[in-house]
Amino acid sequence: MANSGKSYQSNLDSALFALLLDPAAAESLQAQLLDGLRRKILSSNAFCGVRLPASRVLAAELSVSRTTVQIVYDQLISEGYLVTRQGAGTFVAQELPHLSRVASVPRHPPAPVARWRPFQSALPDPALMPHAQWARHLDRAWRAPSADLLARPDPLGWYPLRAAIADHLLAWRQLACDPQQVVITSGARDAFEIIFRALLPPTTTVAIEDPCWPKMARTLMSCGARAHPVRIGPEGLDPAQIPARARAAIVTPSRHYPTGRSMPLSSRLALLEWAGRSGGVVIEDDYDSEFRYRGQPLPALAGLDRLENVLYLGSFSKLLSAALRIGYMVVPQRMLPQIAAYFDAVGGQTSLTPQPALASFMESGEFALHLRRMRRVYARRQAYLLSAMAPAQGFVELAPDAGGMHLCAGLGPKLQGRVSDREISAEAARAGLCVAALSDHCSLPHGPEALLLGYAGFDEDTLGDAARRLCALLARMG
Amino acid sequence: MANSGKSYQSNLDSALFALLLDPAAAESLQAQLLDGLRRKILSSNAFCGVRLPASRVLAAELSVSRTTVQIVYDQLISEGYLVTRQGAGTFVAQELPHLSRVASVPRHPPAPVARWRPFQSALPDPALMPHAQWARHLDRAWRAPSADLLARPDPLGWYPLRAAIADHLLAWRQLACDPQQVVITSGARDAFEIIFRALLPPTTTVAIEDPCWPKMARTLMSCGARAHPVRIGPEGLDPAQIPARARAAIVTPSRHYPTGRSMPLSSRLALLEWAGRSGGVVIEDDYDSEFRYRGQPLPALAGLDRLENVLYLGSFSKLLSAALRIGYMVVPQRMLPQIAAYFDAVGGQTSLTPQPALASFMESGEFALHLRRMRRVYARRQAYLLSAMAPAQGFVELAPDAGGMHLCAGLGPKLQGRVSDREISAEAARAGLCVAALSDHCSLPHGPEALLLGYAGFDEDTLGDAARRLCALLARMG
């Protein structure tokens, strides 16, 4: 890492290569080099003891003669700034004559890297990402990039990736769209910002599901929108409870987050009817529907709507890797001019670096094979977790789920009324487990209580060990 | 691209691999496969004529026997959905019995790729990016990523990159900071959003330079801030003209954008004095100071301030590639807790993909060598442009600039009063040249007029040809 000798070595090189010598200046090149080198050495005590570049190398880099560099090195040796070691080269002295303290800042040790803790939900297993394939696609895209990749980046995203996503949605979600309706984003927050700034008036009221993704209300607030939570029933969000002033509703119809329920067709049609009648837009967050283990998933709501009033949001953070930060939205044709105008005004934010690699990864079919493989692995992990949690019967209520990446475990008779899901979550956190409380996903009072147990991101050994610890903890609290 | 046969081939595979068969269901696997396959084929007319996977491959993928797949294929052949060609395999029929139109969307041809046009400013030459080196760093970082890379990404950025940036700033900008003060962003807009949401009250008034980056006011507005433009004089932004309600000032002290002036020490001290007195923050946008061709650049304002009240913004979009979308800000220690709390609340947005590659590219010294090489190339291109524009003497006023990536050409006596910089810009756009008008960078009335001629991004042939066309155009308009 950065505190190694190697890094400071190249950093001194970098500092010296940054020197500017002006042949037209009144001062000689030699005097300029002497002054510049002395100042660079004094600029940081991190350089103490570091080797200088060979005089030949520095001379070539600065376009001066080697003799000039040697004279300057000799001068600084005589001043005590530099020392020579027989056969090893020239080094900055360990003790400098007048070490300037101005530019030296003590470095704190880096904060420890945050590890994923067992039962973290919405996390694909980072170890199962096909890294070698992915690195090959990155290398191929960028080693000798096409002229199109070097042209002005389209703020809506790299076209072949948008086309590959359109193909994927047709194959996996029965959603037909033109690639030009697909807009690449840095994830759900970026998508919400684009939607609430480009398409809707400021301080729009938005109906959201309660419970929902805990950052939702804060994210909407940071976009200037106002969240209006609606407690969902067994059939999902009831459009009759959307306030008249609302101009948008955010829903997770395929699998409600985090309870996992899917919205029946009747509720879907009612929601589309609300949108048509009120002129509102429905935002469908379809975050992990590809991980379906049994039965046919209901097609995307946006497909039912034929992309008239529904914006569809997808993400690769759950399908592939949380590190990518690539998501997308599919936009009704009539809204595209406003989106384009917004990007013209403020520009795009999403890095182009991963986009061509992801496009060829999808075009090659490797992405579909990966999803299918993960579906098998995650289905096994869900079954394993269910069996590993068997000792907690009576404490929590667990049932197989037809899809998803976590289980939502209600509190059983041995816990109900004695302890809250939040207290269990806090106790589990002390034991190193990331068990989220369902009531922390509610902003309305008297939210339902349950524990969220993410299983997709962890192998069976880890899940087994974590389940044993959680069972013991629940038995103690019951 | 996506419309090739190859892509649809793998897309049909992908669609079939997405099928879910449930051994526990009432329907037989064979009936489920027959129904699923029929629906997939009908879902898009893009599949017409496409070859199906071999029965052996599909059987293995779906965990059914090969006989089951063969029976289903035979059934669909008899129904007219599939056809066989001797020795070539099984294909979707060209004409389908009852083609469902629901999911078929005609695809528009992609919009043409936008090429960079000569004289675009703030653009590094995409052809000179060391692509092979860059791809090697990407491949090395991701082929077999370290456990730290697979851990929970730090929303403030990949630590070794933050450390490499701290090293770079010490070497090139005489700015000393701890790596933990460096926050990785998706560029200037992202940085402004973080600053105005995390550190300042909503609807903060911000003093900005006039002229300035044209998207500045819109970007600030989209963050909820209110821009108060101050017309700059020869000494830059005068703190006496900052309104009392302002809590922030955004400046480009090293090289004012786009006039190229640098702010003298007296103005810098006055600005720091304003910040100390008013409790305001100064945001230093140091966008291209590394490209300095003569003389020593003034150190960063943030260094003079010792990072007390100044936030420093840097970017790799101008140093390396516009496609990266990686920038950074250096934050005073006392403001770090608020930044961390903001990221806790809403999460980070910047892709991790390029970060470890950029870190090792910087640590290896290749980045410093690249900057030095670009400095030589861009200095030559500036000199070349000056000579190529010699025929326009009297029409425009051009002088060598000690740094930067564009020249700011005032209107000469043969044009002044006859034609505005905006009219020239519009005429140049019709001729395929991207000559920006200085007055388009002003939001206050009676802005100064000049033409911005970016030279860094274009080779001498392109610059020479573009300069000839511009000279002819100016002569016609004069």
Automatic annotation (TrEMBL), chains A, B:
Family: In the C-terminal section; belongs to the class-I pyridoxal-phosphate-dependent aminotransferase family.
SMART domains: HTH_GNTR
Domain HTH gntR-type residues, every copy: 27-95
Record key words, sorted: Aminotransferase, DNA-binding, Plasmid, Pyridoxal phosphate, Transcription, Transcription regulation, Transferase
GO MF annotation: an example: transaminase activity
UniProt-listed InterPro entries: Aminotransferase_I/II_large, HTH_trans_reg/aminotransferase, PyrdxlP-dep_Trfase, PyrdxlP-dep_Trfase_major, Tscrpt_reg_HTH_GntR, WH-like_DNA-bd_sf, WH_DNA-bd_sf
Source organism superkingdom: Bacteria
Protein name from the UniProt record: PLP-dependent aminotransferase family protein
Gene3D superfamilies: Type I PLP-dependent aspartate aminotransferase-like (Major domain), Winged helix-like DNA-binding domain superfamily/Winged helix DNA-binding domain
Signal peptide (from-to): none
